[in-house]
Amino acid sequence: MKTVMVTGGAGYVGSILLRRLLERNYRVVCVDNLMFGGEALLDIWEHPHFSLAKRDIRDREAMQALFAQTQFHGVIHLAAIVGDPACARQSELAQQTNWQASIDLLEASKQHGVERFIFASTCSNYGKMADPGGFVTETSTLAPVSLYAELKVKFEKTLLESDPSPDFCPTALRFATVYGISHRMRFDLTVNEFTKELALDKELVVFGEQFWRPYCHVADFSRAMLAVLEAPREKVAYDVFNVGDTAENYTKGMILNELLKVYPNARIKRIEKKEDPRDYRVNFSKIAQRLDFKISKTVPMGMQEIAEILQLGVIPNPEEQKFYNIPHTP
């Protein structure tokens, strides 16, 4: 049985990935400092192939000890200070975690014979499209405009441009903007937040509805990582893939139009904004053609599921701080 380390496994993306890996008969070690708690792990706690290594990836000695005691087939690196606002608030911690600790993790993986290394990057790396009418691809110029994206680009470059080894298979995945239901739920993401505001019958204030972003359901993130983990080496080694679907590029205005189908009487205040340093549409044909990857959910489907769990009271108070990565005031 192969063992996979998932850093940040108790988080929004990782908590789903843990379950998909267990379903596919991997032994899974979740490395997480439980910054946002560990409730997302409760229902798999007694799974015979699951274990939690509670530690901070910045603790080099503790991480080395973990590598020394377990032979890992793969490392899926999700742990990070996530998002532009969180990195801006905690810039030193972001540098330590998203850059230095990631380098240490990469070196330890190579040193201890890890075969597969998957890095969670972001489409935010593209910044603003040079051609407003076009689409960016994996070969487009990267133009990060935040510390979060700058550190992602910096580590990507180190990961993919190192001297190739036939025994090591690193891959970077530039994920679209995420949304949807997870075991560690978040309501500070565009689709989730907009749906939540209208579900609570609040006025939704939207700035700059004309700017583009690609979106991808959190469940499909795990499907993409599994596709890469299990793909033939020659298809993914030292390579990068955008993760999403080309049809799932939306402006905020388009998202509002979809929400109005769910909440026709919604109160929406649209505030004009002429400039946004991040404005990009992404082409996702590479992962579709190379790995036959297809998404399973669309933005309207994600809105419906979030609306449903709030309507039914599955999450009775979505304004609780635990659902947000930065301080939240209802």
UniProtKB/TrEMBL annotation:
Alphabetical list of Pfam families matching this protein: Epimerase
Domain NAD-dependent epimerase/dehydratase: 4-244
InterPro entries with a match to the protein in the record: Epimerase_deHydtase (IPR001509), Lipid_A_modif_metabolic_enz (IPR050177), NAD(P)-bd_dom_sf (IPR036291)
Record SUPFAM superfamilies: NAD(P)-binding Rossmann-fold domains
Protein name listed in UniProt: NAD-dependent epimerase/dehydratase
Lineage: Bacteria, Pseudomonadati, Pseudomonadota, Magnetococcia, Magnetococcales
